[in-house]
């Protein structure tokens, strides 16, 4: 899933989730994003929803066009993790270590996103701050923060998006449906998380951020 927030009088949000892969016959991220589309983010934010193939080459061709089409202020990606039991906010994306074949049995020969790129890129968003705010809101869905998105298509997508958007991106991992949250609960959590991200970005507008860890 991906969400795009644009610097227009009426803000536009674009969201994407991933297609099924491996043991995930139903990808909870895509289901949750579709529920989020029903909820909306308020009158000032239009949502655009898209499903992304679990393919390295598709990500490399799709993301640049998504970033250049509307020049978004923020892009948010959502993926499923079989190990997650909370809604997990990923703080950074990693460049190297991609050795697992995708849905087309393809794997980058270099095992990296961008040859010569920084090892790690952080989001401009303080995920710890977002986590604390949502957890204290009484939402009923636990939120946590991670610094390792898994070295598969989620991490690969996040790094690529962070690079293209100079850190103006976020990635949220959700657990499989019913383990323990329903699609509706995940959508409510995504809505709360994204609204907090937007508020933080607005508050921190104009501040400098260090995005790359060498």
From TrEMBL:
Instruction: State any GO BP term from the record.
Output: proteolysis
Q: What is this protein called?
A: Pyroglutamyl-peptidase I
Q: Report the source organism.
A: Cyprinus carpio
Its Enzyme Commission number(s) read 3.4.19.3
Q: What does this protein do?
A: Removes 5-oxoproline from various penultimate amino acid residues except L-proline.
Q: Cite the active-site annotation.
A: 154
On subunit structure and binding partners, the annotation says:
Monomer.
Q: Which gene encodes it?
A: LOC109087640
Q: Which reaction does it catalyse?
A: Release of an N-terminal pyroglutamyl group from a polypeptide, the second amino acid generally not being Pro
PROSITE patterns named among the record's database cross-references: PYRASE_CYS
Chief subcellular location: cytoplasm
């Amino acid at each position: 899933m991906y969400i795009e927030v644009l610097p227009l009088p009426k803000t536009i949000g674009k969201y994407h989730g991933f297609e099924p892969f491996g043991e995930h016959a139903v990808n909870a991220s895509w289901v949750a994003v579709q529920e989020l589309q029903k909820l909306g983010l308020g009158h000032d934010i239009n949502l655009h929803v898209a499903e992304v193939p679990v393919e390295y080459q598709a990500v490399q061709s799709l993301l640049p066009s998504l970033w250049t089409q509307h020049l978004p202020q923020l892009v948010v990606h959502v993926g499923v993790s079989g190990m997650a039991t909370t809604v997990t906010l990923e703080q950074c994306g990693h460049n190297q270590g991609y050795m697992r074949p995708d849905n087309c049995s393809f794997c980058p020969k270099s095992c990296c996103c961008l040859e010569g790129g920084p090892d790690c890129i952080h989001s401009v968003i303080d995920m710890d701050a977002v986590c604390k705010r949502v957890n204290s809101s009484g939402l009923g869905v636990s939120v946590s923060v991670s610094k390792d998105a898994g070295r598969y298509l989620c991490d690969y997508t996040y790094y690529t998006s962070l690079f293209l958007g100079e850190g103006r991106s976020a990635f949220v991992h959700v657990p499989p449906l019913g383990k323990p949250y329903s699609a509706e609960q995940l959508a409510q959590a995504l809505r709360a998380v994204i609204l907090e991200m937007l508020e933080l970005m607005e508050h921190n507008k104009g501040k400098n951020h260090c995005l790359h860890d060498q």
